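Appendix B. Worked example

We walk through a single record from start to finish. Start with the input: the chain for Bifunctional salicylyl-CoA 5-hydroxylase/oxidoreductase, Bradyrhizobium niftali, length 772.
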Amino acid sequence: MRIVCIGGGPAGLYLGLLMKRQHPEHVISVVERNKPYDTFGWGVVFSDAMMSAMRLADPESAAEIEDAFNHWDDIELVFKGTRQRTTGHGFIGIGRKHLLNILQRRCEALGVELVFERDVESDLEFPDADLIVACDGVNSRIRARYSDQFQPDMVIRPNRYIWLGTKKAFDAFTFDFQRTEHGWFQAHIYKFDAETSTFIVETTEEAYNAHGLGELDQQASIDFCEKIFAETLDGAKLLTNARHLRGSAWLNFSRLICGKWSVFNGKSHVVLMGDAAHTAHFAIGSGTKLALDDAIELANQFDRHGHGRAGIETVLEAYEEVRRVDVARIQNAARNAMEWFEVVGRRYADTLEPPQFFYSMLTRSQRISHENLRLRDRTWLEGFERWFAARSGIAVKDGERVPPPMLTPHRVRGLSLANRIMVSPMAMYSAEDGLINDFHIAHLGARAMGGAALIFAEMTCVSPDARITPGCLGLWNDAQEAQWRRLVELVHSLGHAKVGIQLGHAGRKGATRVPWEGIDQPLESGEWPLISASALPYLAHSQLPRAMDRSDMDRVRDDFVAATHRAAAAGVEWLELHCAHGYLLSSFLSPLTNRRTDEYGGSHENRARFPLEVFEAMRAVWPSDRPMSVRLSCHDWTEGGNIPADAAIFAAMFKEAGADVIDCSSGQVWKEERPIYGRLFQTPFADLIRNEVGIETIAVGAISEADHANSILAAGRADLCAIARPHLADPAWTLHEAARIGITSVSWPKQYLSAKGQYETNLARAAAASAQ
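Next comes the structure step. The output line below is what the pipeline stores for this chain.
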């Protein structure tokens, strides 16, 4: 085949040498706009896994690259007058110029034609090519020419950064955070040869503009950065090799995803590779890795399907299918890390203490978890756990195992919780006339013995017409109150667990069948009239609710107050108001379901007016020493609906009204929603509200392991974790997860103690067997 790689970066050079090495008959050219052996940029970071892949792909170039690597294990943080360090992270770096020079020499040795100082405008300049590889960077001209086919999704991110270097070798991957009068600046620093380090400085657009950095030339920008980071530089000068860029050389990162990676131009197949196809933020240092992995996979697919013209289309389809998965994984991690740095000032740097800030930074991509940190640096993590436990009031003796964050106590108002795990409200739809029955006693009693600190029953309705289904719990009469008292007494008799109640009103989602007879489907008989913020049915064939008038609001408010009185009298210790999931109060908060034109519709203040009225009336009669939380749908997952920024506004309003905690859920407001599911997918909402609004939060959603909970709590992303479905599968989830991570000091019910030792022994045996 005749192959032309447009762009002489890592992707084009590595593909050229791999294809020539595997099939010398190919005629391959790599066309680069710069001069021979010339490049811009400083160092790049590799992983051990990347090097293993390169050794398999081309041992000769891998050996030379490995000889040039600088290795380091430590990460150091400079922050608020402290200097913290942890080890075991295993980075390797090399100068970008040195890397390209090695690949250029290897290409020449194999017979790949290198064409320099040629600026390619179009793929049509190579009509004899069978395959044209567009690896011409994030601003690819080739991709732009076929934008309708490639479907690029380019997002310019808000932060500004400048890519510099310094003739000082840092012995750790160093992060330096410095606050100026206009905001925070952070430096990402790592060495790549014996005497030189990359020095990337990043800040927000607001700080960039306030300091007038866009009006400076490059040298003035460098002088500015030298002044901010003078202590870390310790007399070393900052350098640039981007004099070709105009102005101050501060850039915005461009996040790129393409819908398709290859096209046929009528004569040649054209495929994207490297930054022309996708970008990953430098916060996790994977841009070069992605480019090299692209080259390896494309060459492997030719090996698999044949090095001939006839199979090119099949090869390109297989290449894209395989690479899209890994690229998405890396981009997700990079997005998490990128977004952390974009909000680091207002969300973390201003609020977190140095140890927790360091933990948050280390886990910013969500690829590194609590137990992974223990594997990397047990000493550092146990020191952090000791600090976290001390803040929770636990003094751990020398030599004792420090409890992980999820097993530390937590106090809200006058209520002390034994740990940070709660059984989330989960609808069972098994009541008759709203009454707790033997099923609920057995169900919740089992979970009360399972180690969690706070036990919630399902959403409990404040009136008969507030129910979702005929099987919902209620609290509107004396008999229901008596059964709640029975439940509270039972839970208290079984151990340390406290009892919470979530009061709610179904609104437009009411009068439906129990789920196993048809989720959200309206009752065929026995239905009751529905009310909502506006007259909008949940499903097209659902009952049409009536838009509430003032008399309806008065009645519903009074129903919530009456139920609050009953909950307090029954001995319930935690009260939550349900303002999420499209139920009545949620329908006021969301613009999707609130179409009112009076004082209860329109602005955030108007949409929150009635939910706040209900909350304030409940708070006024709820005992002052008992906590009260509000569950919010923090994202409607539908265009035109609420997004996390809206949820933060509502959270601030409830905080001012006296809420202690925001329970951060999402969705179920609009039937046509498009949620983006994934591990811990709702935790970012708790993180935002906790650290920007300044109120405690509960994280919920796809939290299924102790490792998840410990990572969330240790990083300060939430104060409590609500575990739902895992508690359905395992009533003793908290006890079992504690045992799984080696915590044997947690008490089990005395009736089950004979099983505790055997369970822990079996876990230890299984761990030993898997390690062999």
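Two observations about the output. The domain at 403-741 is CATH 3.20.20.70 (TIM Barrel). The chain has a mean pLDDT of 94.
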